[in-house]
TrEMBL record:
Gene3D superfamilies: Phosphate transport system protein phou homolog 2, domain 2 (1.20.58.220). Pfam families: PhoU (PF01895). This is PhoU domain-containing protein. Residues 32-99, 129-203 form the PhoU domain. It comes from the Bacteria. PANTHER family: PHOSPHATE-SPECIFIC TRANSPORT SYSTEM ACCESSORY PROTEIN PHOU.
Amino acid sequence: MKNLDESIKGLREHYLELLKNLNRVLDINLEMFEKSSFDTALYGECLLLEDTINNFEVKIKEDSIFTMARFQPAAGNLRLLIMLINSARLTERMGDLLKANLKIIKSIEESSTEMAAELKNTIYPIALKTKNIYEGYINAFIKNDEKILFSLLTMDEEIDDLTKTDTENIIELMKKKPENIQSGTELILLCKKLERFADHILHLVFDLIYILKGENMRKLELLEDKKI
């Protein structure tokens, strides 16, 4: 019969597998952006990965609740278990967001060859930076390294700046050729979705910092906003 430490170790392993499956969905996005085209086989793989992610999310939630009820862990472990539940739920939503990107890629490819080329020129660099942040988070989780987490906070600003610049460039392309308005709008939507995905990663980062250092970054952020 498992003790508390064994249960938490198992939950961390399940959560890491969840993160790795989401990372593969992000890779699928990157592959389609780089090819500037929709790939049916990759989309099929994404659907299978989504099921796996959903199953891990449910298992992590159920096992965490069982662990809390059985062992009544002290504050530190209790915070970890709650973090795992919340982060697994957010990760599942992040997978849904990435899956939705693939249908947008298909729509852009079908409506405009010219704008489809921007999947590689414009969207791919944003997605690549986003992947770097996400893999940094995975690495920090494995190593319990808060220094990596703090370094990721500044990388999100790069995503925001790049998204703003790319959105302006896409709008200029749409002005030159009104027939590209629909596909251009979808390109902007992809930019925003990747920006949102990066924001979700930061939420994961904040929660892990709280576990490692006891600092509630979200609370500090809200207090700072109130001062402003």
